[in-house]
Amino acid sequence: MYSFHLATLDPQITAGLLLRAPTAPGLRHVECLAGMRLGAPVVSPDRLQLRRLAVFARWQDEAALETFLDQHGLGRQLAGGWHVRMEFLRRWGRVSELSDLPQRASASPATPEEPVVAVTLARMRLPELPRFLHWGRPVERLVRDHPGATLAMAAIRPLRTVSTFSVWRTTRDMVQMVHGHSGVEAPVRHRDAMVERERRDFHHEFTTLRFRPLSEHGRWEGRTGIVPCHDQRRG
Fold first, then answer.
1. What 3-state class would DSSP assign to 169?
2. pLDDT at 230 (0 to 100)
3. What's the number of domains the chain is made of?
4. Considering only CA atoms, which of 31, 36, 34 is closest in space to residue 12?
5. Is this model's pTM higher than 0.90 or not?
C-alpha cells in the first residue's frame, strides 16, 4: 500500500519534517517534501513552498495508514488535506530505500484507458544542477500543461531530493507524453531530457514509479475528483 498526500501546514512544521521524517507503526518508508510549482523560475518563492507539504509513503497495509491518519499528530493534519491510495505497478531506475521493488508488480498491468499515477524520486548530483534545470524546466511545463494530466506538481527537500507527482486521465496519455507522441507543442521535451540524462546522469539515484489509484480522499485547493473515475473507491 502506498499513499501520496498534499496538505497546507505551518511553514515551521514543514521545515521540521524536511529535517526529520516521522515514524509510525507500519510506515515502511516516507518522503516529506516542500511543494514546488512546476515550471517556476529558478529563483522564486514557488521553488520552495513551505506552506505546502507533500508526503509520499509506503505502508505495511491499509490498516497502518488508517491508524496513522486517525492517531498520529502529523497524520491528523494530513487527513485534513488530500491524498490518494495506490497500488504499485512498475518501476524504472532505483533509489536505495525502495530497491526491493520489482520492475513489474505481480498485479495486473494498467490498461491503456485506466487512470494512472506517476511518482519520480531523485537524489541530485549538485554539480549537475544547472544542467538539470536547463533540461528539466521544459519538461516541467510539458507535464504541467498537458491536457491528459489532472494534477501535476513537484516537491523538494533541500539540498538533494527532488520529486514529481502526476495524475493522468489514462495510461495512454502518460505513455504518449513520455515518448514524445502527444499532440501538444514541443512534445519531445521529455524524451530529449531522458536522452541527455542517459548521456550524463543528473542524479546519484533516480526512479520513476507507476501506480494504480485505489481511492481518493479529501480535497486540494478546493478540488475533488482529481483522480478520474475508473471503478475506484472514493473517501
1. coil
2. 66
3. 1
4. 34
5. yes
